[in-house]
Design goal:
alpha+beta; 11 strands; 4 helices
C-alpha cells in the first residue's frame, strides 16, 4: 500500500508535459481562422444563423453586399488569407459592403479579438469609406443594455478611413482603435497601405464599458470582418476601390502575449 501511495505522489509531483500544457491553452472560437482549409461555397438563400462556417450576406436579396475570396497571394500566417475587394464599378448604390462573417457559440464575451489586416489599392470614392470588425451579441434574452430595444447589441471597431460614426444606429457603438491596438490609420485619414498590421482588442472590457453590461444570456456572438462605404453618390463622386486582407484571426479567451519576433515576422 505504501508503495502505491509513493507512486501516486511521484506522478502528481511530475511537471506538466508540453502536451498537457497545450491542452490548457485558450481555445480559438473561430473555425479555419487563417483560411488554410477549404471554405464551403456560399449557400443561397443565406442562412445567417449557421455556426462555425465563414459566410457573408451576399445574395440577390442584399445587392449591396459582396462575397469574400480566399487568397493565396498574401498571408500574414501560412499560405492563405481572406481577401475583400471593394469596387464600385457598375454599382450605383449608396452603400457597398464586402465581408466575411462567422457565428460562434460561447457563454461569455471573449477577452481577445486579434489578428492581422492589410490594405492595398485604396481609392477613396466617398467620405465614409472604411475598414472595420463588428462584434454582435445575438438574440439576447436577458441582461440587455437599458437603452437597447433590439435583441442584439454591437460594437464596431473601425480601424481606418473615418474618425466619426458613419451613421446613427441605436444598438451599435463605434470605436476607433489606434496606436498599439491597431496602427492602420494614416495621417492623411486613409489606411496605411502595403503592410500587415496586427490588431489586439478586448471586446469583453469594451462591451462592459460601452454598454454597461457584461454580455450573457445570448444565443451566439457574430463577428464580421468588413470593408465598406456608405453615402456614396455615384453620379457625383469618383470610383471607390480597395483590397483588404485579413489573416491569423483569433476570438477567444486572452492568450499569453505573442513575442515581438512573431509580430515582426508578420510585418515583413
Amino acid at each position: 500500500m505504501l508503495s502505491l501511495l509513493l507512486a501516486a505522489s511521484l506522478i502528481a509531483a511530475q511537471p506538466e508535459t508540453a502536451e498537457q500544457s497545450h491542452a490548457t491553452e485558450p481555445k480559438n472560437l473561430l473555425v479555419n481562422p487563417s483560411f488554410e482549409e477549404p471554405v464551403a461555397p456560399q449557400a443561397q438563400p443565406v442562412n445567417p444563423h449557421v455556426i462555425g462556417q465563414w459566410w457573408s450576406f451576399a445574395g440577390p436579396e442584399k445587392p449591396y453586399w459582396r462575397h469574400f475570396e480566399v487568397a493565396d497571394d498574401e498571408a500574414a500566417d501560412g499560405e492563405k488569407s481572406v481577401r475583400l475587394t471593394l469596387d464600385s464599378e457598375g454599382y450605383d448604390g449608396a452603400t457597398l459592403i464586402v465581408g466575411a462573417t462567422q457565428n460562434v457559440i460561447t457563454d461569455t464575451m471573449p477577452t481577445e479579438l486579434s489578428g492581422f489586416v492589410r490594405v492595398d489599392d485604396w481609392e477613396r470614392g466617398t467620405l465614409r469609406q472604411y475598414a472595420q470588425v463588428v462584434v454582435i451579441v445575438w438574440n439576447v434574452t436577458a441582461n440587455k443594455p437599458r437603452t437597447v430595444a433590439a435583441k442584439n447589441y454591437q460594437i464596431a471597431y473601425t480601424f481606418a478611413g473615418i474618425e466619426q460614426p458613419p451613421f446613427a444606429i441605436a444598438n451599435r457603438k463605434f470605436l476607433f482603435p489606434r496606436g498599439e491596438l491597431v496602427d492602420l490609420q494614416g495621417q492623411d485619414g486613409n489606411p496605411i497601405e502595403g503592410e500587415w498590421k496586427r490588431f489586439d482588442l478586448n471586446p469583453r472590457e469594451d462591451f462592459k464599458k460601452q454598454w454597461g453590461v457584461d454580455p450573457s444570456d445570448f444565443e451566439y456572438i457574430r463577428v464580421l470582418y468588413e470593408v465598406r462605404y456608405d453615402g456614396r453618390q455615384a453620379n457625383q463622386e469618383p470610383p471607390a476601390h480597395a483590397v483588404v486582407h485579413w489573416d491569423d484571426l483569433y476570438f477567444g479567451e486572452r492568450r499569453e502575449k505573442e513575442t515581438e519576433a512573431q509580430d515582426a515576422a508578420a510585418s515583413d
